[in-house]
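Need the bound structure for heme C, inputs here:
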Amino acid sequence: MIRPLTYAAALLAVFLLSPACEREEIVDDLSSIPYDPKAYVMPELPYFFPEMPIPEDNPMTAEGVALGRYLFYDPILSADSSISCASCHRIDRAFADDQNFSTGIGGQQTMRNAPSLANVGFYQNGLFWDGRVKTLEELALHTIEDSQFMAHSLEELLEAFREHPDYPGRFRKAFGIGSRKEISKELTAKALAQFLRTLLSYRSKYDYGNWDRGPETQFFSESELRGKILYTTEPVIDPSDPHPGCSHCHHNTALLTSNEFLNNGLDPALEPEDFPDPGLGAVTKKNIDYGRFKVPSLRNVERTAPYMHDGRFQTLEQVLDHYSSGGHSSYNLDVNIMPFPLSEQDKQDLIAFLKSMTDEIFFQENSYKNPF
Ligand code: HEC
Ligand code: HEC
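Answer from helper R.:
Posting the output first, comments after.
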């Protein structure tokens, strides 16, 4: 016969001991989880793409990319778990935002429009519209901590990962850590950067039409071909006969940007303080750099409205009206921005060519989608 008191005591003991045991399990060792990372295999890119620089201390692995993808879509990254990276970088917008200014934590607005993240792993000349950070690893931590974005203390975030049912295992699989304590901001940044480097856009009509060695007419319509000439003829060969000449800055190459920082005439300015947003000037403090912004890639431009660092233009027609007007004058306006004639037909042709840069497959790619 079981004596009720012994039974109660045993129950009590189980009750008292079990949380302790569990806690011990939560605290540390992850070595029972296998660590066997597989090199991430990049898709084969067309011959006209440059080599993507991969930092030596952050080689891409399937497990690292997978962890980065969870992190990108997880609101746990923001202080009140309200927004994730994907709240402002939306796959249906080529990872740009459809708002002029993205909404950060607590409904605050960011200072600028969120750019597309397609092919972001190639950029080596500075990230953000003003180039204030150099690497994706560095950038990832900035966005988490910045009060305009996710406003999260990294220490608190790391605690949340350490107590999480899944993240310790995912960090172990990606980076071989032996205990939860080893989850660090560096590893968080590395995983996010690995995922960002996988966002590759290279399968638009522009790619096939421009770079296939067969006849262009096989891919492009007549209107697109006329648009291509408007896009690629140098803007100011003869100052009395200026052209749109978009490719001077946005290039006619795989990345569709020169990756330089320039002033394309959005605001009038007699001196640096006149620019509503200092752009690169805030970083370098040189007068010549105020009002200069990163030349954005035109890949998928059909889907990345609103346009410019402040999202001031809603449509490509408005963008073309801006350029053909010659923009606002300022002391450092780029010499390739000057008024040029643009008929209705020219406009349609140029827009048709810009739309050939839309990569439909990019938007459907399963490995870019929310994994939750
Ligand atoms: C609240 C909205 C918001 C959130 C959340 C957010 N971003 Fe951004 N992101 C932006 C904006 C706005 C910019 C441009 C800021 C600037 O240039 O000053 C930007 C810029 C970037 C860039 C630079 C792209 C380039 O071409 O220079 C990358 C990369 C990026 N974000 C990745 C991320 C990652 C990774 C996360 C999550 C850790 C994240 N973002 C979270 C709004 C957001
Ligand atoms: C002198 C260099 C230069 C030339 C020429 C130029 N651009 Fe730009 N473009 C820029 C810069 C710089 C920006 C970013 C400006 C900003 O946001 O402050 C930009 C931004 C854009 C954007 C916004 C993209 C986005 O995602 O927000 C579009 C669209 C665009 N340009 C299209 C064109 C077209 C079409 C032409 C030809 C008619 C052209 N550009 C000619 C430098 C140039």
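Comments: The chain has two domains: 24-200, 205-356. The chain has a mean pLDDT of 93.
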